[in-house]
Design a protein that fits this description.
The chain has 237 residues and is of the alpha+beta class. Helices cover 35% and strands 24% of the residues. A 4-stranded antiparallel beta sheet has the order 1-2-3-4, with helices on one face. It has a 4-stranded antiparallel beta sheet with strand order 5-6-7-8, with no helix packed on it. Strands 9-10-11-12 form a 4-stranded antiparallel beta sheet, with no helix packed on it.
Amino acid sequence: MLRPWHRRLGLASALFILLLTLTGVAINHSDDLGLDKTGVTQAWLLDYYGIAAPKHVAQFGHGPSALYITDNLLWQNQQMILEAADTLISAAYTSNMLVAIDAQQLYLFDKHGQLQETQNTSTGLPPGLFALAIIDDRVWLNTESGVFKADDQLIEWQEVSALTTPVVWLNKSDTLDTDIINLARSANLSWQRVMLDLHSGRLFGHLTIWLWDLFALALLMVSLSGFWIWLKQKPPR
C-alpha cells in the first residue's frame, strides 16, 4: 500500500526538485549569467509585478546621440547612466561633457556617460532649478533665484541680471522613441529577482509559498517511505 503513494509523491517531488535545481543554479551564477543586470522585457511579466510605465518621459536630440529621461532615470544610447533622487528635468551635451539636472542637483558626465561630478547648493549651485541651456558651450540655468551661467570650469555660477537676448531653454523633442518606455519599465525588474521569487515560491503570492511547503513535506514523506520500503525488503542476516 505504501509503494503507490511513494511513487506518486516521488514523481511530483521530481518536478519540484527540477525547478529548485534550475533556479538555484541560475541564482548562484547570476553574476556570470548577467541576470542581475538583465532587465525583464516581457510586458505580461512586468504587468504581473505591477511595474507601470514612467509618468515623465522626455527625449532630447535625435539619433544615436539622443538623451532620454524617464522619471528619475537618464538614458544614453538606450543605456541607463543615472538614477537620480528626484525627477530629472533636462539633459544636453557640451563640447566635452554631458549635463543633466533635476530640481536641486546638476550631474556632469564625460562623453561616454560616466558620472564625473554632482553639484548642489553645498558646492555653490543655485537652488530650485527649472531649465537648462547650452549657449556658446557654456551651461546656463533658469532657477527660482534667477538666471545663472557657469564659468569655463563649471565651478562658479554668475547671476545674469540683464539679458540682451532671450535665452532658448532646452525643450524635449516632439517625437519619442517608444522603446525607451519598455526599457524604463525593465530597469525596475531584473531576471535575478524573478529567479529568486520563483525559487522561494513568492512569484505567485502567498498560496504558492504554502504549495512549496507541501512539496517540501512530500520530499520528507518520499524519504521516510523509501527508507521504510528498503528496510522491509532488506534480507535478514
